[in-house]
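Subject: sequence -> structure tokens, single chain

Hey, anyone have a minute? Need the predicted structure for the following. Not urgent.
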Amino acid sequence: EGSEPEAAAVAAPVAAGAAATGMAAASSSGGYVVQVGALSSAERAQSWQQSLSQQFGVPGKVAANGNVYRVQLGPFSSRQQATQLQQRLASEAQQQSFVTAAP
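Reply:
Had a minute. Here:
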């Protein structure tokens, strides 16, 4: 019986984190973007974003944050659409990415 509360304690933060992320994203007006990476070169980031947008037929942008340029595809109105692109990136371009709420 002593091990059950521990299991619940481990599972709870994950569920709470997922719920909080979902709520924050749902309240965001921009929907979701798929971030494929961040580069220190604006030109390389722009070129990469354009080739991915062309290859996958989706809009994209480079989001500057200081001297880091994030390559993002989207926005998508639903997390499901963003996740579908994330899966295509992995299978067709062997590209890891993550889904995040658009600002």
